[in-house]
Specification:
CATH class: Alpha Beta
Keywords: Metal-binding
Number of strands: 19
Protein name: VOC family protein
Order of helices and strands: EHEEEEHEEEEEEHEHEEEEHEEE
CATH superfamily: 2,3-Dihydroxybiphenyl 1,2-Dioxygenase, domain 1
Shape: globular
CATH architecture: Roll
Number of domains: 1
Helix content: 10-25%
Organism: Fictibacillus terranigra
Pfam families: Glyoxalase
Strand content: 35-45%
InterPro entries: Glyas_Bleomycin-R_OHBP_Dase, Glyas_Fos-R_dOase_dom, Glyoxalase_1_CS, VOC_core
Length: about 280
């Protein structure tokens, strides 16, 4: 099943604030295999397929280091098309000595975790077949177990890494929020996502169409965590795509009814979540 096409609603693009644009581009191009699609208003839009951008980076004036214990980015997650491609990524990181922050089996997927030079969290993962996912009482079963790295590397024997494959997409986005209840109301009642897993009382995983998650929300940086100050490295904004203009406009109306300030610019809507994170609501 494809959970990142119509009629689903999902995250398609993430824009990051970085301290040093050249350093950032060196990482994303040299280590992960992105190329520059276009430059616009001080932002560099990166691509893997040469057609669309799933990630962009911007260096503001007076750029500052990432702030700890704030809301915003936990990690963005790049979904590769299959296990062999994930194995090639792992072999690549081992060969160049790039440090990983983790490697996990989540039952629904297998994942590698790392950070870019600014400390922005990145997950690179491959999904297991959706028919293998388990659901209990309406919630998807996910856990965090050690990744079978040796078994995974067998998949890439004899293969070389030439950059992330062109089929790679923005699989999901995981955010630090300041209040989980407020975030649930905003993202579910407002944007239209559904809760697929409540992780104790400190994290939510939400999606459309029965995906294991298009968005993760957590309070691991603390209840009431403040939004980062402007110009600090981290998440600048992200894009949520709806299957139609009508679905997008209905989400905007629901958010306004909840008291959120929704602004229209050209053909997109822009709004900040309760934790101060900016997003674009676009139509597919």
């Amino acid at each position: 099943m494809n959970f990142h096409t119509r009629p689903h609603t999902f995250v398609t693009h993430v824009q990051l604030i970085v301290e040093d644009l050249d350093r950032s581009l060196s990482f994303y191009k040299g280590i992960l295999g992105f190329s520059v699609l276009k430059e616009e208003e001080g932002a560099v839009f990166l691509t893997l397929d040469g057609l669309k951008s799933i990630l962009s980076v911007v260096q503001p004036e007076n750029a500052k280091p990432k702030q700890p214990r704030t809301s915003g980015l936990y990690h963005f997650a790049l979904l590769v098309p299959n296990r062999k491609e994930l194995a090639k990524v792992l072999r690549h990181f081992i060969s160049i000595g790039y440090p990983l922050q983790g490697a996990s089996d989540h039952l629904v997927s297998e994942a590698l975790y790392l950070a870019d030079p600014d400390g922005n969290g990145i997950e690179i993962y491959a999904d297991r077949d959706a028919e293998e996912w388990k659901w209990e009482n309406g919630q998807v079963v996910m856990t965090t177990e050690p990744l079978d790295s040796k078994g995974l590397l067998v998949e890439s024997a004899g293969s070389s890494f030439d950059g992330l494959p062109k089929e790679t997409i923005m699989g999901h986005l995981h955010l630090h929020v300041s209040n989980l209840q407020e975030a649930e109301m905003f993202y579910c009642e407002g944007l239209g996502f559904e809760v697929v897993l409540r992780y104790s009382n400190h994290a939510l995983f939400i999606s459309t169409g029965g995906y294991h998650h298009h968005l993760g929300l957590n309070i691991w940086n603390g209840q009431g965590a403040p939004a980062p100050d402007e110009h600090h490295a981290g998440l600048k904004q992200f894009t949520v795509v709806y299957p139609s203009s009508e679905a997008r406009d209905e989400a905007g109306a629901r958010l306004r009814n909840l008291g959120y300030g929704v602004q229209q610019l050209d053909e997109s809507l822009f709004v900040k979540d309760p934790s101060g994170t900016l997003m674009e609501l676009a139509r597919g």
